Amino acid sequence: MSQRIKAIRGMNDILPKDSTVWQFLEGRARQLLNQYGYGEIRMPIVEYTDLFKRSIGEVTDIVEKEMYTFEDRNGESLTLRPEGTAGCVRAGEEHGLLYNQVQRLWYTGPMFRYEKPQKGRYRQFHQIGVETFGIATPDIDAELIILTARLWRELGIADHVTLQLNSLGSNAARANYRAALVDYLTQHRAQLDEDSQRRLESNPLRVLDSKDHGTQAILKDAPNLLDYLDEESREHFQQLQALLTAAGVAFDINPRLVRGLDYYCKTVFEWVTHSLGAQGTVCAGGRYDGLVEQLGGKATPAVGFAMGMERLVLLLDVAGAVKHLSPAPDVYVVSEDASAALLLSENLRSQVPALKVLCHCGGGKFKKQMKRADDVGARFALILGESEIQNRQVSIKFLREAREQITLDQTQLKTFFADSASA
Ligand code: ATP
Ligand code: MG
User: CB within 8 A of 234, min separation 6: which ones?
Assistant: First the structure.
């Protein structure tokens, strides 16, 4: 026997029993983004490697060690997208959407990072990303955050997430801060963990992210990013806080929140949960006013975020927010006359579009068909025996209630299901 081929580690199948939760999440998000007037953009999953190197930054975790990069048959270096912002900016530039315009865009799909697979961290994962272009004022930063807060409420997970907020300031302010931080950390170099020692040279702000206890202790007395903010960024940050407060969105300021990517400036934020263990960030974003120019376009202010769908799906489950979702059909149609069964099912789908109707296929006796109806979790079995067919009737067996079977004229089905839906 030949050996079975398995899925790649860290890349998951999503089975029908779980995809109902995904559809719920995607459906709510789609509806909400539409309500806010955001337009969907769909980009390729593969881009030139340089796009990610130039946007995310050469010395970030993603570019240093997480990208799926390969040569195509022309010898060109391509990469499976590790995130969506770079491709979105590339597409926006390429189609003239960005310069001197306001754009509110969103996308969804798989992202790829070569990470150590664990709960909430995979090699193929999915994001919904939202990007806005052409607005420099903090009202749009606030809108994005208010939008996510509404989404959490609609999904039923608002009690499980909190908002962390920070400002990275202008490039110049960040450079000043970086110098001060390097200065301080160099004095304590020996007490830093190995990763942080390396980052001290390559990407010192990332040291603030370190989970190492020794490094954490050193960081307690490190210079504070917020003390280095330039006047404009300080003002922007204060206005953002005022807008959020007025909108009733609570937040915690976390001066150590720096985010992993190079392109952020001013606002950065994360929605975090304690309900999922270590992989607690379900949504993260910030402002990236310099990126469009960095990728060859005209200077364009921009701010966006991405949410991790796998983590949200896990959270929906933990929060008990998806108990009402069931892949079970409402109705299972049972008959030894396949033609009659198909026909009744069709009529029912036309008359009551909201109903999930499963028509038994594959033959077999009534008893076996009834067992199927029960196994799939249907609420009603609709039975078409010889006498029902002759009299244009149908019998209804209540599979989840202690109720006597009834027989109706087929013309009464629509009313019956209208009533049972409201019951
Ligand atoms: P982390 O610190 O958890 O590695 P990140 O800063 O690398 O996250 P972003 O690039 O900001 O993540 O991506 C936005 C969101 O996408 C994250 O907050 C998270 O919810 C999700 N995400 C990122 N990487 C993964 C992954 N490997 N598996 C599952 N979800 C992920
Ligand atoms: Mg990461």
Answer: 167, 169
